[in-house]
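Supplementary Text 2. Reproducibility record for the structural model of the 226-residue chain.

All settings were left at their defaults, and a single model was retained for analysis rather than an ensemble. We include the record here because the model underlies the residue-level annotations in Supplementary Table 4.
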Amino acid sequence: MTKQKNEELKKVRKEKNEELKKVRKELKQIITDKDKMLKKVMKEKKEELEKLGDINSALIIKERQSTYELQEAHTELIKGFRDLSGEGSVVGVKRMGEVDEKPFLKVCEQRFNGENVGLQHAMLCSEWQKNINDSAWYPFKLVVTGEKMKEVVDDEDDKLKKLSEELGEDVMNAVTTALEELNDFNPSGRYSVPALWNFEHGRKATLSEGIAHMTQQIKNLKRQRT
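Retained model, structure tokens:
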């Protein structure tokens, strides 16, 4: 009886071992298949990313090329406007960062007489243009506008406050405007740069506005010659 039980136990163990081997084999196959599938998916994703990287690189190159072409067109328009634009033009060339001399002249006319008006006017404009171009003077502060940080002229700057006290608010505003223009158009250089300007609306002119205005100017010149 005991021998029979031992035989039965051996048989049961053998069957269990066979089942266990079978389960292990199936699990191994499942893991292998999953691994192959995962590697395949990863390979596909890698290829997709590489394609996206190529597309992105191409788009960046195209964008840079378009930006360069726009800058070239902008530069050529500025050259053309120097020859075609005159007093009272709606669109023309404005030197950004160049101080408006009119408020200085008004103050000089109120304080001086004769030749001194022109002399003092020239000296003051020259002095403040030099100050504006001086990178060592940094009368700006950071302010939060919405979710962005923006640099603006600090109206509490000692030099600007003193200028306002000595020559008036209009002169200080002229200097502030020139500083803002430099900070927008040439912050690294701190020297005046030419820009297409819409004088009617007091803002930078778009490329299409510049082209349209220049086309009209050329037509006007042709009419005058015929």
